[in-house]
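Project channel, design review

CF: Before we commit to the Actinocatenispora comari constructs, I'd like one complete example in the thread so the newer folks can see what an input/output pair looks like. Taking DMT family transporter.
RD: sounds good, go ahead.
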Amino acid sequence: MPPGLFIAVPAAVVGALSFGMSSNLQYRATHQVPTRRAGDPALLADLMHTRMWRLSIVLALTGFGLQVLALRFGPVMLVQPLLVCSLLFYVLLTPVLAGRRPDAVRIGGALLTLAGLVAFLLVARPTDTGGKDLTPATILPLAVGLAVLLTACLIAAATVSKRWRPLPLALATGICYGVTAGLVRSLSDRFADGFPELLYHWQLYAICVLGPFGVLLNQNTFQAGRLGSPALAIITTVDPLISIGVGLLWLDGTIAVGVAEVTGEIIALAVMALGIAVLATRAPHLVAAGQQVGDGD
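CF: and here is what came back for DMT family transporter:
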């Protein structure tokens, strides 16, 4: 195992814990402020007045710092799948903080999701170079694809019924986070040169736009749903899958592509999808059982 992974893996896991705790606080905070349309920055202004949300941002920044550290020593296609542990931490911590017993079905769904992504990681054996030759010209297809996907998600969120609205919003959030992680990784080899040097790279400015927009969509997602775990499952799954795609197409990344490996990767993705389905189908039962918004999930 490369020495850098002894830093990257623990940093990614602890970062996932920070993200899981942050998500719990953000979900609760979004249901204490007026409902806003998707992409409306007024939602962030409302949330800034709540102590719970401000604390969640401290935790999120801690998680992001650990994510950057992990990306400095490990490939994006390794670090991002490990961050799916935030879903497990969320599912475990949420009922405990609310004074309730953890729901076994939700824990099972989270474990399936986690197992699917970990299996994918072990089978695919992803690597990347950090994208040293990344330029605006080579990234243009990514920008176009990002714009098309986000537009489609926002249109869907505005047209589907309230019950399904969190789905496209969670998808858009995961896309933003995954692309942002790829951009951070593309700069990671230049961190040692100091912050002034980073100012000459366009990726920094793209991160400053895309990152906050992803945070805003994340709050829209939490506010639109009665329970947070299904939405978070989509976000934490789409995020690493998008970052894997960015790594393959723009960061000179590789994954195992033999017949056995591809078969294993497909099975792993199917297990991950099953975990998300378990969480999504469990949510209405928990609402019907009386676990309303504000009880912790």
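RD: helpful, thanks. The radius of gyration is 18 Å.
CF: The chain is about 75% helix and 0% strand.
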